[in-house]
Write a structure and sequence with these properties.
The chain is α/β, with parallel strands linked by helices. The chain contains 37 helices and 25 strands. The strands form five sheets. Strands 1-2-3-4-5-6-7-8 form an eight-stranded parallel β-barrel, surrounded by six helices. Strand 2, helix 12 and strand 3 form a beta-alpha-beta unit.
């Protein structure tokens, strides 16, 4: 909370209490949050009937307007879920940013070639919608599968440019449908037309979240310019004129909790400047809602602006609140209290919410205890009505209700009674017919949320609007369904929630149950809560004794192997259920002692806290996944055969395995190797990397606590000589190794030196010259984010890290500029800080090797980030190369090589990458399905990632491992991994007695058909 609030201690304590409540309820059980709200706002039968009558009147106007509003007709014509709707959404998202004609043609062919646009031609009452459809019909005729059509023959005479123009015109017409204007002047001019008489507007400057400081500066200047220009059209003294909506993530490239100590003060300063400018111009300024992770930071920024003495006379500050959030009611309470503290009115826009799908996914990926939002549409509707009632009761808020739902509007009208000191809000082009009568004849106020920007900036907004309003559960979609009656449309969500007792949606499991019934998901840390993060980092920085275990001699190693051989037999004969249970206890113990593991990883392995948490979670997942797999796979299989014979296939342990782990994942890979060997009944001699023995010893000690006998699992700490002795010992029955290619080759040769030694399996996972291919349909902001993650997270010290970035030449310069800007935003520091993006490399040998290479490449370096002078910090670096074959070696650090490729050269590019001989990970960024399919068909890699980063494989979901120089397989964390640790044995038994098969002879005659 902002320090200035201390001027009113008693009220400020209430603000603190609201903030505390928000933390407590963020992931609370859904019924606990929604049922009290449902019961509190449940209406009497009489009131409910009044609301429905109001709503039915509104429905009549809405249905009439369905044939008039551009967006309504567009959504009616192209519903999400239809082939045409999906194709159009994909085409609109990418087409207007493609600079080259060849790729544009491929995109057109890919997206519209198979859809049936003709069925939509001329069907809409809107000329714009029909014009857009005609452009798509022409495009389909040119690129579609109907080779003999007359239309295609006619269009072919004018060639592909004609098709591009037709589709381009369709996309621009869509822009006119969804955007109020290309600039603020055009938007205001359109807003002032008679069709919008009586309405005000909230203008939103379209654009993606900032990825660079230049982006943030450009968006800030755009907001300033919009405020200045809008002031020219503003009526002096008008209480509620037009307004500007501001997105905080557009004003700072690192609007993240871990970076809040830097980004929040900078955002406060920017928002104060915008607010002062708005106040001087009599303009309202609303701070838009962001993802749940940013809520606390947003409130800090809003409070700082609200408390500014220079703005004390101005009541034009506003904020948006998302009703799908479990914290929405608490935020309203805080906003009302805060406004009272500073003696102002706060404009509050209540919305249903804009990031529902991504919030669900994020909570699942992070292994959180629950979801910060409601999982049912009905629950969000109930929350919205409860929030609306609270806002109407608030003393210091001016409520604004953004909705297109007739029942919601009717409920608010009924709750408000004769009041008119609030406003409704709707999206530009949507909700036509819902508010006109209310505004022009009944005195209600309504504001139109009006996006402003060029066609390129339309993309993200368009996709979000189509997803929100084209979904089956949306009121807008249901309204266009002629099969739905008024009563079905106006079903009371309160009754629904009470009937189901507020239960979470059955198709959305809690994050911990994501992989059930197979196993529990590993438990994450709520790192987006500042209090949790600060407390964790405080504990991380407490002193800890990092006592390195002693290295053992080769004589001690020999004795270990002998003891393991003796212990192996009873361990292998233990039931697989018991061994699996021990692995699950091991996982539970690691979660219980997670903070100790995190401390060791941060201090010994130079992991930042986020990488350390992910590594602990991966280790837990390995244990639970292999336990579940072993229970399933290590059961006897009855095989078919002739009568009187029983055939059984059984998987048994091989013996003693050498597990040799790397320093870059010294806990997860180490425990994964050991867990797979143990659960299949083998003994293990576990050798950690010389750089990270402490975390290895910690893991083995936990295994002993879980019930693994000490002779079955033995910890062998040592260097290269010990490793050599281990793999060359003929008593070792298998080797599982992760590390460099040269070491893997040496191990492979060592296993074949002794002609008397049985053939020993080697499971090797090595590195790769991992590439990412980017074509001109890719979204640059998304590419830059994924490149930064893939190449520089963990200081580039991952087997899967990005080494080669191949960019289509048409977008090369712009992408490089954006990437360099994003590199400037990286925080390079010691990993004991929460805001550490890139830490030091593992040791002096790695540092010297990487820095020596960079010295040889200094003439080819495009960008090298600034790093601290003291410490083993290798600067994140971007190096230009002329061709793929210029990169021959895996440089294991934060170094990305970038190469251009020409359109039409995709096949040759993939072949060049394949020719490197490595085959671990590859990424492709493209919006053309045929391109990604081509890469999938031709790339020889273990893990291919489409339109995302190429690191962070998840156990059981993305089994990890390569081919060629990158490893032997089978994939770690996959369904075939355990089989490599086993031998297969078949037992065939003749079950007949001498002279015949009694069971066959005893069959009843009824079993035969006469």
């Amino acid at each position: 909370m902002n320090a200035s609030s201390s001027s009113s201690p008693s009220v400020s304590l209430k603000m603190i209490e609201f903030r505390h409540i928000m933390t407590q309820i963020s992931h609370a059980p859904e019924p606990d949050m929604i049922l009290p709200l449902a019961h509190a706002i449940k209406m009497s039968d009489e009131d409910s009937q009044i609301v429905k009558e109001i709503a039915k009147t509104l429905l009549t106007s809405l249905r009439k307007a369905q044939h008039e509003g551009w967006v309504n007709q567009f959504l009616n014509e192209y519903r999400l879920g239809t082939e045409e709707g999906t194709a159009l959404l994909s085409l609109a998202e990418a087409f207007l940013r493609v600079p080259d004609h060849d790729t544009a043609d491929l995109l057109i062919s890919d997206k519209i070639g198979n859809a049936d646009w003709g069925t939509h031609s001329g069907k809409s009452a809107s000329t714009l919608v029909n014009s857009a459809t005609w452009g798509l019909v022409l495009g389909k005729a040119m690129v579609g599968p109907n080779e003999g059509s007359v239309l295609k023959t006619l269009i072919a005479r004018t060639g592909e440019p004609f098709v591009r123009q037709g589709v381009g015109a369709a996309m621009r017409l869509m822009g006119q449908i969804f955007v109020m204007g290309r600039n603020i002047e055009e938007a205001v001019k359109r807003m002032n037309k008679s069709v919008n008489r009586g309405f005000t507007a909230s203008f939103d400057m379209l654009g993606e979240a900032a990825r660079t400081e230049d982006d943030a500066t450009r968006y800030f200047n755009a907001y300033c310019d919009a405020i200045r220009k809008l002031a020219k059209f503003q009526s002096k003294g008008k209480a509620l004129g037009h307004s500007i909506s501001v997105k905080l993530s557009a004003l700072h490239p690192r609007y993240e909790v871990a970076h809040r100590h830097k980004c929040v003060p900078e955002l406060i300063e920017k928002c104060l400047q915008l607010a002062q400018l708005a106040a001087d111009s009599n303009i309202l300024l609303t701070i838009d809602a962001e993802e749940a992770a940013r809520l606390d930071m947003s409130l800090d920024i809003i409070e700082a602006v609200a408390s500014a003495p220079q703005l004390a006379h101005w009541d034009g500050l506003g904020m948006a609140i998302q009703a799908y959030s479990k914290r929405a009611m608490a935020v309203i309470g805080w906003a009302d209290e805060m406004s009272g503290v500073y003696g102002r009115k706060l404009q509050v826009r209540l919305v249903k919410g804009a990031y529902w799908d991504s919030e669900i996914k994020y909570a699942q990926e992070q292994g959180l205890s629950g979801y910060p939002l409601f999982t049912r549409k009905a629950a969000t509707d109930v929350s919205y009505l409860a929030c609306a009632a609270a806002m109407l009761d608030a003393k210091n808020l001016f409520p604004a209700f953004a909705t297109h739902n007739a029942l919601t509007v009717a409920s608010i009208i009924h709750l408000a009674g004769d009041r008119r000191d609030f406003e409704f809000q709707r999206l530009h082009g949507m909700g036509d017919g819902l508010f006109e009568n209310l505004v022009r004849e009944q005195g209600y106020q309504c504001r139109i949320y009006a996006p402003v920007g060029g066609h390129r900036d339309l993309l993200a907004y368009l996709v979000r609007r189509l997803l929100e309003n084209g979904a089956n559960s949306s009121f807008v979609h249901q309204l266009s369904d002629h099969n739905m009656t008024d009563d079905e449309l106006l079903k009371d969500p309160v009754d629904r929630i009470i009937y189901i007792k507020g239960a979470r949606h059955p198709s959305i499991p809690l994050p911990c149950d994501l992989y059930q019934p197979e196993r529990l998901n590993s438990r994450g840390v709520h790192m987006d809560d500042a209090g949790t993060l600060d407390a964790l980092m405080s504990r991380m920085n407490q002193p800890i004794d990092l006592i390195a275990p002693q290295q053992i001699s080769t004589d001690t190693l020999s004795a270990m192997i002998a003891n393991a051989q003796k212990a192996f037999v009873p361990w292998s004969r233990m039931s697989v259920d018991n061994r699996a249970a021990i692995l699950e206890i091991w996982a539970d113990l690691l979660e219980e002692q997670r903070e100790t593991a995190l401390q060791i990883l941060v201090k010994e392995a130079n992991k930042n806290i986020f990488d350390a948490i992910n590594e602990v979670r991966e280790a837990v997942d390995f244990c639970r996944y292999y336990a579940a797999q072993a229970r399933e796979q290590m059961q006897d299989i009855i095989l078919p055969g002739p009568t009187g014979e029983q055939n059984i296939l059984r998987m048994d342990a091989r013996g003693i395995w050498a597990a040799i782990a790397p320093w870059n994942f010294p806990l997860a890979i180490f425990m994964g190797q050991i867990a797979a060997a143990l659960v299949t009944g083998n003994g293990v001699i576990a050798k950690p990397a010389p750089q990270t023995p402490i975390i290895g010893k910690f893991a083995v000690d936990l295994a002993y606590q879980a019930g693994v006998p000490k002779d079955v699992l033995q910890f062998a700490n040592g260097g290269a000589d010990l490793g050599k002795a281990l793999v060359e010992d003929a008593r070792i029955n298998g080797v599982v190794f992760t590390g460099s290619v040269p070491t893997a080759r040496h191990i492979a040769r060592s296993l074949l030196i002794d002609d008397n030694r049985p053939l020993v399996p080697l499971i090797a996972e090595t590195g790769g010259l991992n590439a990412m291919i980017v074509d001109s349909t890719a979204l640059p902001e998304q590419v830059v984010r994924d490149v930064i993650i893939s190449g520089f997270q963990s200081a580039g010290q991952r087997c899967s890290a990005l080494r080669l970035l191949a960019v289509q030449d048409d977008i090369y310069d712009n992408l490089v500029e954006m990437l360099c800007g994003a590199m400037d935003s990286l925080n390079i520091c010691m990993p004991d800080r929460a805001d550490c993006d890139v830490g030091p490399v593992i040791d002096k040998a790695s540092y010297d090797k990487l820095m020596g290479y960079l010295e040889t490449q200094k003439n080819n370096i495009i960008k090298s980030a600034n790093v601290p002078k003291n410490g083993l910090f290798v600067p994140p670096t971007l190096i230009a190369i002329d061709k793929v074959s210029d990169l021959q070696t895996e440089w294991f650090g934060p170094i990305i090589h970038i190469v251009k490729w020409r359109r039409g050269g995709m096949d040759a590019l993939i072949a060049q990458i394949n020719n490197s001989g490595f085959g671990l990970t590859m990424g492709v960024h493209s919006r053309i399905a045929r391109v990604t399919q081509r890469v999938e068909a031709q790339a020889r890699v273990g893990n291919l990632y489409v339109n995302r980063s190429i690191i962070g494989a998840v156990v059981g979901s993305q089994p990890f491992g390569g081919e060629g120089h990158s490893g032997t397989g089978p994939k770690a964390g996959g369904p075939h991994y355990l089989s490599r640790f086993c031998v297969e044995r078949t037992i065939s038994t003749d079950t007949t007695s001498a002279g015949g098969n009694a069971s066959l002879l005893s069959l009843d005659d009824d079993d035969f058909e006469y």
